[in-house]
Amino acid sequence: MHRDELENHLSQLLDTPRFRDYCPNGLQVEGCDNIHSIISGVTASMDLLEAAIAAKADTILVHHGYFWRGENACLTGIKKRRIALLMTNNINLFAYHLPLDSHPELGNNALLAQKLDLIETGRFGEQDIAVLGKPSQAITLGTLAEKIALKLSREPMMIGDPNKPIQKIAWCTGAAQSYFDEAAQMGIDAFITGEISEQTVHTARESGVAFLSAGHHATERYGVQALGEHIAQKFGVKHQFIDIDNPV
Length: 248
Ligand SMILES: [Zn+2]
What we know:
The protein is α/β, with parallel strands linked by helices. It has 2 domains: 3-101, Udp-n-acetylmuramoylalanyl-d-glutamate--2,6- Diaminopimelate Ligase, Chain: A, domain 1 (3-Layer(aba) Sandwich); 108-216, NIF3 (NGG1p interacting factor 3)-like (Udp-n-acetylmuramoylalanyl-d-glutamate--2,6- Diaminopimelate Ligase, Chain: A, domain 1, 3-Layer(aba) Sandwich), CATH 3.40.1390.30. It contains 10 helices and 13 strands. The mean pLDDT is 97.
């Protein structure tokens, strides 16, 4: 498939023009015209680029790309080395941030819900990315934490009483701990996100709403994989997800 065809398709599918994001969504670095083999990953780190080159991919698809708002725009140091490697190897880099958190089927939040048997009942937060919902069956905080450890292969950090029954819940993948105050006022029993801050612990204790920090990387592995699979099936190209582990 031609690169433009893929970019147009993904722009429509993920409704990228709707989002005010911290980075450009879509083709961030232009490589070859025709796409045959895609590697997906959470972050376009040097390790992922090298793995994609070893796999002879012509395109990389990520959730965390480059050119973040507020960062030094110059192509120096780490940024120069990454982009030079892509350009020397004629590899396309596609990145989708908030549109890939938000998508109702292929999004990180929808897929985290699937993993943890949570049912979506509504959305909240900036641009309606965070999700309100309930567990598909009665569960305690402790059991939910065990489920996260099992399904995401990562022990979460839990703030709250493990015996607490969880009926109403909210979640948002990645670093969404800043949504916790808003979420805690909506009558939920627990909030799940990827990262935790010092003040999150106090909010959890004082509001009585439990908090589970399940890993930024761990909670955001699934959207980009699902998107890669979708592209492979629709356009008949090769796709492989490469997990470059990250403890955060
Ligand atoms: Zn993220």
